[in-house]
Structures are given as C-alpha cells and as structure tokens.
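For the sake of transparency, this paper describes our internal protein records without simplification. The tokens are whole numbers drawn from a learned vocabulary of local backbone shapes. One such record is reproduced below, unchanged from the form in which we store it.

. . .
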Amino acid sequence: RWAGPARSDLANLELLLWQLTDVADAHRGGAFVCAAALALPRGASSETPTEVAVRYDWRGRILRAPRGEGGFGYDPIFAPDGEERSAGELSAAEKDAISHRRGAFTLLAEHLRARL
C-alpha cells in the first residue's frame, strides 16, 4: 500500500528506504504494531460481557539496506531492539517468539486467564 496500487513488497521497501535516505541512524526508529481485541458474552461466572483490547509495539530500527531472505514485507530492513540481525535474518521460530503478534496475543491470553 505504501508505494501505491498494485505495487509489491519490494517496491514498498525500496520506497521507504529512499524516503529515509537522509535520515540519520539515530532517528531511524520503527516498530511493528499489533492490536488485538477479545469480546466474551455474559456467562455463568459474570453478568457483564468482557471486552478488552491490547496493543504491543515491537520496536527496533530501520536499516539502510535489506538483509536476510526470511520473513516478508519490511522484515529485511527492520532490526528489532537488542538484535544486530534484521527480522529477515531471524529464523521463523526466533521471530515468532519476539514479534508484535506474539506480544499482543500474550497480553490477550493474560486477560483471558484472569477471567477463568
């Protein structure tokens, strides 16, 4: 979507890198964000429905050039905080363990466990 209709992941990535060309490394922060919501109906243990929304930001920095063949989208130019490798260089298991989706659904699961 970033590079316009009918553009590819690679076109999006290249456009973003071009737009950030003159941005100093100290200002190339970025994040993948996942928001998730849970809505439970009234049940025997509660007279009111449960609704909760969570958000998790997977913070890092935008690299100057793509690295790695894994992942998709912006993964090759995103280095998570605490990592020298890009998300595209992480194994699927490593990425899944620290990603924005894992973070958000872990928070959501905590809410669900507290309700049970």
Q: What stands out?
A: The beta strands are 29-40, 50-62, 78-80. The two ends are 40 Å apart (CA to CA).
